[in-house]
Amino acid sequence: MGIGYTLCGFANSISTLIAFYVIHAAGLSICYISLLPTAVRWFPDRRAFISGFTTIGLGLGALVLSPLATIIILTSGWRMAFIYIGLTMIVAITALAQVLRSPPSISMPLSSPSSGQKQTVHPSQDFTPRAMVRTWQFYCLWIIFFCGTLGGSTLFGHLAPLLVEAGFTRVEAALAVSFLSLACGICRPFAGYMADKIGEKVTLASLYVVAAVFMFCMVTYPMLAFVWVLFIGIGHGQNFAIFPSITAGYYGLKHMGVNYAVMLTAVGISACVGPLFAGWVYDTFKSYYWSLIIAIISYIVGAILAIIVRKPQPAEKSVKAEA
Predict the structure, then answer these.
(1) 3-state secondary structure at position 123
(2) Whole-number Å distance between alpha carbons of 251 and 118
(3) Contact at 8 Å (CB) between 110 and 196?
(4) Alpha-carbon span 303 to 230, nearest angstrom
(5) Which among 156, 108, 111, 129 has a CA at the least distance from the CA of 270?
(6) Residue 250: which of 10, 12, 14, 47 has the closest Cα?
(7) Neighbour tally for 149: CB within 10 Å
(8) pTM here?
(9) How buried is 193 (Cβ within 10 angstroms: 0-12 exposed, 13-18 middle, 19+ buried)?
(10) Strands 108-111, 118-121: parallel, antiparallel or unpaired by DSSP?
């Protein structure tokens, strides 16, 4: 991650800059997928909260890095900003990685919000990635993840021009995007805490409905966008606290890193589809109306599927059933 960021400071063309940034992005993905399962293994009975607490660093890091990068750019230029920050990443991540350890056991106590009793997930209930993708629940969860992040991805790409068109200044529109990012990040441990207390499915469905309601408010009265984006950001950010927990709860901890990486492809595709579709809608109809309506529908679909989906059979039972 740090090497790619440092190399960006030596780029002499757009193509090499993109290539070096791809290296940085690959390292970031590896770091994220390595860190999250380890954290969940240490706190298996609070896995949604710890997922939210871990991933909040992504949002808070951006809040710290943006002004720092601006200062370095103004004083030393953009190349030195990449180099200084990249070298800092290399030193800090390498040092902190030395204390990262997995717990001695991968058994997972699960708390039932209704009964308060704990059950242990044994290794026989761990699904390999191949076994996971052979369950209908995986595809249902993937669609939920896609639908639950489509609206947020759309707004991250088009909120600023949408608000400028509604009468906001460019500075106000940029500030609204910052509010959206802040809500998306800060809400994660709180959403995770709710999921651990009342259940992941209930939390997902409830906050999707909240996001749908305030997305409709964005459509009908965008002048209060600074209020609406806070709740939409919560509906978007909760996914990154709850879906690691659901992946662990449904498919076990042993292969969680790879399983969640496969599940996370839903976010990558929604991040591409949402902004591209909204751009096409605006170019065609000269309005963002229908792209926001689609986002509302996607939240509702995600909420319905979140209630319907249920935990798959343990891996051994699935194999016996097929035999």
Answers:
(1) helix
(2) 17
(3) no
(4) 19
(5) 156
(6) 47
(7) 27
(8) 0.81
(9) middle
(10) antiparallel
- Residue spans of beta strands (DSSP E) within 93-224: 108-111, 118-121
- Which residue is it, tokens 């409905």? 209
Q: Which two tokens stand for residue 30?
A: 């590896």
- In the chain, where are the structural domains located? 2-97, 124-310
The burial of 120, by beta-carbon neighbours within 10 Å (0-12 exposed, 13-18 middle, 19 or more buried), is given as exposed
CA-based R_g, the chain, Å: 21
Per-residue tens of pLDDT for the chain, all 323 residues: 889 889 999 989 889 988 988 898 888 878 877 788 888 888 888 888 988 888 887 766 666 776 788 788 888 898 998 899 899 989 988 888 888 787 876 555 544 443 344 444 444 478 999 999 999 999 999 999 999 999 999 998 899 999 999 999 988 888 888 888 888 888 999 999 999 999 999 999 999 999 999 999 999 999 999 999 999 999 999 999 999 999 999 999 889 989 999 999 999 999 999 999 999 999 999 999 999 999 999 999 999 999 999 999 875 544 444 44
Terminal Cα-to-Cα distance of the chain (whole angstroms):
45
Instruction: Tell me the C-alpha distance between 298 and 208, whole Å.
Output: 9
For 163, half-sphere exposure in the C-beta direction (CA atoms, 13 angstrom radius) is 23
Strand partners for 110: 119
Structural fold of domain 124-310? Growth Hormone; Chain: A; (1.20.1250)
